[in-house]
Amino acid sequence: MKATMMKNINQYALITGATSGIGYELAKLFARNNYNLVIVARDQQELNSKAMEFKQYGINVITIAADLFQRENAFSVYDEIKSREITIDVLVNDAGQGLYGEFKDTDINRELAIIDLNISSLVILTKCFLKEMTSRNSGKILNLASIASKAPGPWQSVYHGTKAFVLSFTEAIREEVKDFDITVTALLPGVTDTDFFNKADMLRSKIVQDKDSMADPADVAKDGFDALMDGKDKVISGFKNKVQVGMDNIMSDSAAAHSMNEQQKPADND
């Protein structure tokens, strides 16, 4: 372990959504393993606070405040890193958000912004840094998918659709770069105890009523970190989620959609 950590000195991991939830826990793991960090989020104050915490591990931390709901800002993040002459050895695309409600009733502009965050900004950052990784024949990319990628999601139709894209996209580019010394991994968490459900206006959903059944974001992050370091294509975090994905794989899409509808509809709809 010590030899591996020493090898990471002078390497940089770029993590979006690094100030909370799974992204924050991933940033801690990379810091503990001697990676320098570039952390990206919208709130500069939060970034400064987390940077002070991460620096206690004896690493360098660079903060970039950027709103990745606007996809042009993903190009700006890349340009800023290039201007600082920093090489990104690991890219972690964690930033993502959902929106709860039936599609006929939800705000289309918010959904389009979520598509830009969950898909467009992820694709932009991946393309920019993957080009550099292939040119030097080294690098790692971890994309946050979700078990939502494996089934249609009534009450979160756009979110589930974006995560299905992320998983498919990640598996495709992994195959394209298989002859390079590059790892591309998808992390598929289930219901996790983060602020995601509050931001998605989803607190009345049946699936989030039992907080005791939610996964610890630190455990999810560890699963993703270990899978990336082991060169795996993807990891489903948590035994219960592995079982659910297994069931979704053998059900028809319509049956999987019905099952997800029963899990995600408002608790007061029964």
TrEMBL record:
The keyword Oxidoreductase is assigned to this record: yes
Domain of life of the source: Bacteria
UniProt keyword list: Oxidoreductase
Chain segments annotated as transmembrane: none
CDD domains attached to this UniProt entry: SDR_c (cd05233)
Pfam families: adh_short (PF00106)
GO molecular function terms attached to this record: oxidoreductase activity
Recorded family membership: Belongs to the short-chain dehydrogenases/reductases (SDR) family.
Protein name, per record: Short-subunit dehydrogenase
Organism annotation: Albibacterium bauzanense
